[in-house]
Amino acid sequence: MAADVIEASLRPSAQFVFPEQGALFGRGGPPAANAKSRLVAGVDEAGRGPLAGPLSIAAVILDPDRPIAGLNDSKKLSEAKREALYPLIVERALAWCVVLIEPEEIDRLNIFQATMTGMSRAVAGLALMAEEALIDGNKLPKDLPCRGRAIVGGDALEPAISAASILAKVTRDRLMVTMESHHPGYGFAVHKGYPTPAHLAALSLLGPCPQHRRSFAPVRRLIAP
Questions:
Q1: pLDDT of 137-158, one tens digit each?
Q2: Residue 5: helix, strand or coil by DSSP?
Q3: How far apart are the C-alpha atoms of 123 and 41, rounded to whole Å?
Q4: What mean pLDDT comes out for the span 43-70?
Q5: What is the pTM of this model?
Q6: Are the C-beta atoms of 162 and 153 separated by less than 8 Å?
Q7: Alpha carbon distances (Å) from 199 to 106, 202, 207, 213
Q8: How far is C-alpha 102 from the chain's CA centre?
Q9: How far lies 183's CA from each of 79, 143, 210, 218, in Å?
């Protein structure tokens, strides 16, 4: 399956299970949203720049009655802080969803279109229907299931986008650590697929694995006839 909704939640939550790729996990229960509160989803991605691994996109509807202290752009937080915030978001959010776009689909669509597609899927995968989606960046997906608003630097400005940023990155980082055992030698657990000197050296030595993005220049050059 090229793209998968791998995690979806509606409070009250069950125990978190980190799924294998290709699986669908959800949580059920009555909506806990205050009828007077607008359901606004924050949407962000992780993994546009790596040469390998999926693109991860998350959508989160926060509960205004259960604020989460410390939310920020995931790139500005330490790994320990992101891991500490992750279960709080999962527990307190009204709804959340994480979607993975696999390398095959990234290569077919291109990274920009894959990002737009994943954002629409993440919002559509929420267990509650969002009235508005706040998108980190300056572009809006064309097929959002609700109205949208693009916010440049939104992952540092809007708590819901910050929460989505954290879920997307933690999910992807955990997956890349797991991927190391399936494709040893590349150092995925360390660099998470980004084009570090160590990754480029391993790629040159070992050649690309199935998780490498063939449309990205350093990989494409190695497989060109």
A1: 999 999 999 999 999 999 999 9
A2: strand
A3: 7
A4: 97
A5: 0.87
A6: no
A7: 20, 5, 11, 13
A8: 12
A9: 23, 35, 9, 18
